[in-house]
Amino acid sequence: MIVNWLLKIDEALPRSLRVILRGVGQVVFCGNAVTGFIFLAAFYINDAMAGLAATLGAVSSTAAAIALKCSRSDIDAGLYGFNGTLAGACLWTFLGHTPQLWLYIVLAAMLSSMVFAFMTKPSALPFTFQIPPATAPFVLICWIFILAVPAVDHAFDIGPDVRAVDPDLPIPASSGSMPGAGSAWAGMRPALLIKGVSQVFFADSLAVGILILIGVALASPRGALLLAGGAFTGSLVATLLEADYHATEIGLYGFNAGLASVAVGQIFLRPDTRSALLAVLASVLAPLVQIGFSQIFLLANLPVLAAPFLFVLWVVLFIAGRWQRWRPSPLEKPVEPA
């Protein structure tokens, strides 16, 4: 019943608005406009300007895909919107807030669509298999912009986000920085899984995390469980490894694990018991990979972003021997305009 309700609202929207909102929804693999609207509201609730940056990114990346004459079905499904959405929010988080930032957001979002189109071409990569690009365009383009923009435009300073000003946060700290075993376990409260979810949108916010889970649950209750469970598992593993306590508390070890759990447990593999077990494996591996990547990227003063999620996703899919995307719900299918 909820699925039919979502589809009716989705189809009733003008195509341009529907595609933009689907693109925002695809940030967590939900190709429907209602979820996209809830996600966009979460961005604005956390920070109105970050919401505007995410909106500009979604519009710019989608417009670029249309201009490049990319697959109409992929555009309609929102697959050219989510990397731009994330790019906009990311650059707002990690770069200084100057007027020219909006130009960089537009450029980064458009480039993310070009990279996505390149990675989805059958002959684009010299491999016998094709890896799903997922958020790789967003990660690659944002790394380039975070490094290049301050070097060529001295009006930019490091953004206010804790992950930018203190790159040591995502790295396991010595036991001396821990508040003690008792308080550490006390910190593993249910709020941890919510903040782990909210960090998908670069937010340390219970309200944002709850809205994301509501949006995902409307499209797929299984997806919401996988996202919440993966985020909690990632935070739990980080705590057991005595990773930086503050980073764990604000959910930095949860979002990659949550995304990996959903991607493996429902999107890129058939949603069954086997994929659920692989989702648990992915959510355990994600914080381990994030700890290692953090130490490497610290040398360049770069945030890991969604790189651990991508690495774990590709490794698990390679092990499973399945690279195609599984679309279990009609909400994942593009609706042709009337």
TrEMBL record:
Q: What keywords were assigned to this record?
A: Cell membrane, Membrane, Transmembrane, Transmembrane helix
- Transmembrane regions: 20-45, 51-70, 77-95, 101-119, 131-152, 197-218, 225-244, 250-269, 276-298, 304-323
* Bilayer topology annotation: Multi-pass membrane protein
Q: Where in the cell is it found?
A: Cell membrane
Q: Does the keyword Transmembrane apply?
A: yes
Write down the InterPro entries for this protein, in alphabetical order.
Ammonium/urea_transptr (IPR029020), Urea_transporter (IPR004937)
Enumerate the Pfam families for this protein. UT
What family is it from? Belongs to the urea transporter family.
Name of the molecule in the record: Urea transporter
